[in-house]
């Protein structure tokens, strides 16, 4: 006999996030039928609704199917009980970030609005420390040159240290996640080739194949595509710029290839954010509820893209407030990096791994 121990806090958190009681689900299976991404064998999200209402947190933390969902909202639109299965899966994914992410204390302060000042305090203190070591905590006189305020040697070193710290956390989280997937799978399909599967999954993710199947939220595909590629190109530009300043003079001209690439990426990123916000405000069809962390993440990336452009304009126009804008931009950029394992951004990693694992095990 198997004794089931429901995790009541888990059930309550999902109910809070979705604004509905999981108990309202009558297990009709409509959600699984309308979902274009759900496979024929053991389809989702009906079974996840059942597990969630029983509080089976551990089982869901190792379930690859919650990551195969792309939150298109089609199931939520058709659910006869208004239980919002798409939002339930989104809430479970959010719980998953906190479940696996390390160190835990950063996740705790991010989760509650009351701790918002601490969320800002971490990057602000870190930046002040860098300025203190660089000895440049006074606003420089003369033409605007950000490297006189925060020398690149210090900026790049602190950025790399921060990135390594986050990467270390991500590696630990991903290892636990992969083990959980293993534990809940029925074993490896002997005929499958991990390398080939990984390549095909990555290709699928890069071209956003599955987002094209969303029918309720038409903007979801272009919005996600723009944010994804805007972010990737911004990362690439940052790496190129870091390497470049080791050898060449800073600041770059506006027509420097890295600047042009960075600006194109910034426009894509900003356009994607605006599309998501527009869709959230105007799409009342499936009546989705977005949580505090959902909004916080979206607003942060919107602020990063706007302040990024303002930083550039301020330098070109020699604005008096240029260094303040630059500092503000750095705070939000570092918030994004420091809290990456706890936010929606980490779904890039989890979804990729879960999809690879699902195919590798013959899901
Ligand atoms: S979530 Fe809605 S559509 Fe899905 S099984 Fe429950 S009641 Fe049916
Ligand atoms: S939100 Fe979309 S992808 Fe996710 S389970 Fe529902 S229908 Fe499927």
Query: How would the global form be characterised?
Result: elongated
**Small-molecule components bound:** iron/sulfur cluster
In percent, how helical is the residue content?
55-70%
The total beta strand count reads: 0
- The overall pLDDT, averaged over residues, is 89
Q: Could you tell me how far the N terminus lies from the C terminus, measured between alpha carbons in angstroms?
A: 27 Å
Tally of individual domains? 2
Strand content: under 5%
Broad structural category: mainly alpha
Low-confidence stretches: none
Radius of gyration: 22 Å
Task: Provide structural commentary.
The protein is mostly helical. It has 2 domains: 8-100, no CATH class; 104-360, no CATH class. Helix content is 66%, strand content 0%. The protein is built from 17 helices and no strands. The chain has helices at residues 8-18, 30-34, 46-53, 57-61, 65-68, 74-78, 85-100, 104-111, 116-134, 146-149, 152-183, 194-206, 220-245, 257-282, 292-316, 322-338, 347-360. Helix 9 packs across helix 16 (322-338) and helix 12 packs across helix 17 (347-360). The two termini are 27 Å apart. The model has no long low-confidence stretch (mean pLDDT 89). The protein binds iron/sulfur cluster (SF4) (2 copies). Residues 25-31, 46, 49, 79-81, 83, 85 line the site of one iron/sulfur cluster.
Short description:
The chain has 363 residues and is an all-alpha fold. The chain contains 17 helices and no strands. The radius of gyration is 22 Å and the shape is elongated.
